[in-house]
Design brief:
Rossmann fold, seven-stranded parallel beta sheet, two-stranded parallel ribbon, binds nicotinamide-adenine-dinucleotide, binds uridine-5'-diphosphate
């Protein structure tokens, strides 16, 4: 049994990760300030004596003895990370320093949930880890993108300077049950709009692309990454390489929900990436042939069922 700390453990991805690690027989400590996460996401774990939920903001240091740390705390959707951009930068940067400092002292392995946003609006397609990215340092998305880029720098430097055992994964658009219904991300927005018979809001003409990964596939990749030897530090892309336009996604969700909602077009937000698709060759090599196994139809079916239930409640 390992003792594992998850920051952002009451959020969408963190709550699934905690559940999985508990089911595998570990002790799980979950830190969260409940900015976008909630107790409801983990309430079903409260009966497990090996689960602990602690209200804590990772911009402040935290002292504990654990074997592994998954650093997930950070709002992930544009409307949430743009609500208080300075706080977003602090969460990524000071949060990384606090978790790296902790790892250094207790010699724990530490995994950083980085993002495909480090590639910005990419000029290389699909995106390999060797691509440096095309990020606006002073735009609407910068607090998130640059915060995550700086966190990667800190991880690499703590590894080189202090021998901290780091793992960096660059996560591409991930969806599934327990996404926040109002978090503004495209999958949750379209499903909720379709189920409520409201207009489906496509930003721009809908030709921009994303590659959507179901949450279980991501967890498998993250857990495999944590199990690699110390020489594997990443960054490694974790995403589903099947690419869709946003219009295709809207049409698929309309068909699967049987909704009569109309598609409407709204202005494209500033610096919205035109295309995104992971090159997962490195993950396949380093993570024991890891690749996503849940296709968009299967994943959407489960996510739609979740939101149907949630909206009824
Ligand atoms: P989420 O918003 O559901 O989860 C983030 C969690 O962090 C929430 O529970 C929130 O309350 C908590 N949090 C935020 N600031 C905090 C702070 N200062 N101190 C403590 N807790 C704090 O988002 P998610 O989709 O589950 O994302 C989890 C991680 O994965 C994030 O770091 C995100 O950047 C990264 N990521 C997610 C995606 C995706 O598509 N979902 C893609 C790339 C990277
Ligand atoms: N998007 C959209 N309608 C929405 C929400 C998002 O057309 O209601 C678009 C958004 O402009 C972007 C894509 O969908 O091009 C993915 O957006 P999301 O916020 O989910 O993720 P990110 O842009 O961070 O990849």
């Amino acid at each position: 049994m390992k003792r594992i700390l998850i920051t952002g453990g009451a959020g969408f991805i963190g709550s699934h990760l905690g559940e999985r690690l508990l089911n595998e027989g570990n002790e799980v400590l979950c830190l969260d300030n409940y900015f976008t996460g909630s107790k409801e996401n983990v309430i079903h774990l409260f009966d497990n004596p090996y689960f602990e939920l602690i209200r804590h903001d990772i911009t402040a240091p935290y002292f504990v003895e654990v074997d592994e740390i998954y650093n997930l705390a950070c709002p992930a959707s544009p409307i949430h990370y743009q609500y208080n951009p300075i706080k977003t930068v602090k969460t990524s940067v000071m949060g990384a320093i606090n978790m790296l400092g902790l790892s250094k002292r207790i010699k724990a392995k530490v995994l950083q949930a980085s993002t495909s946003e480090v590639y910005g609006d990419p000029t290389v397609h699909p995106q390999p880890e060797s691509y440096w990215g095309n990020v606006n340092p002073i735009g609407a998305r910068s607090c998130y993108d640059e915060g995550k880029r700086c966190a990667e720098t800190l991880f690499k430097d703590y590894h080189l300077q202090n021998g901290v055992r780091i793992k960096i994964v660059r996560i591409f658009n991930t969806y599934g049950p327990r996404m926040h219904p109002n978090d503004g991300r495209v999958v949750s927005n379209f499903i909720v709009q379709a189920l409520q018979g409201k207009d489906i809001t496509i930003y721009g003409n809908g030709t921009q692309t994303r590659s959507f990964q179901y949450v279980d596939d991501l967890l498998e990749g993250m857990v495999r990454m944590m199990q690699t030897g110390d020489e594997v530090t990443g960054p490694i892309n974790l995403g589903n390489p099947t690419e869709f336009t946003i219009l295709e996604l809207a049409e698929k969700i309309l068909e699967m929900t049987g909704s009569k909602s109309e598609i409407i077009h709204m202005p494209l937000p500033q610096d919205d990436p035109i295309q995104r698709k992971p090159d997962i060759s490195l993950a396949r090599t380093k993570l024991n042939d890891w690749e996503p196994v849940v296709n968009l139809d299967e994943g959407l079916e489960k996510t739609i069922a979740y939101f149907e239930k949630l909206l009824k409640e």
